[in-house]
């Protein structure tokens, strides 16, 4: 019989929230001798920001219309973003090009469609990266004897790029996108 490696894997997109941090701390308390590996997409720090901006834009456009109008407008914006990003995310031999990374495509899309300035998007990107580093710091501080590593995945679009991108953009569903990333 082979022993199972004492490693706990977690997947988080955009940031590690306080709830996620508390959840990881509970797992560490129950398994103090395990190594903790937190996986995130190196190029998708703006996924939540895109979802929020698309919802706000659809909401503004349909303020004086029925509830169905909002869903239709949101779907239209999500499809536009999906097609824009899908057509620009370049891949070569399984390695995502940074110039056409998800985050850079989100920045370009938002700027071209008037959904945000370069400065606003850069600030959001930096804030999300900083929150990730801060969460890692607090996890290590609370658990000084536990090996805690954040793994920045560079190949999140493989092997299921359309499913992952659909969840990130068309649905704004970071939970399902996290599950796909975890595969």
UniProtKB/TrEMBL annotation:
GO molecular-function term, one example from the UniProt record: glycosyltransferase activity
One Pfam family per UniProt: TcdA_TcdB
GT44 domain residues: 6-181
Designated name of the protein: Putative cytotoxin
Source organism of this protein record: Candidatus Regiella insecticola LSR1
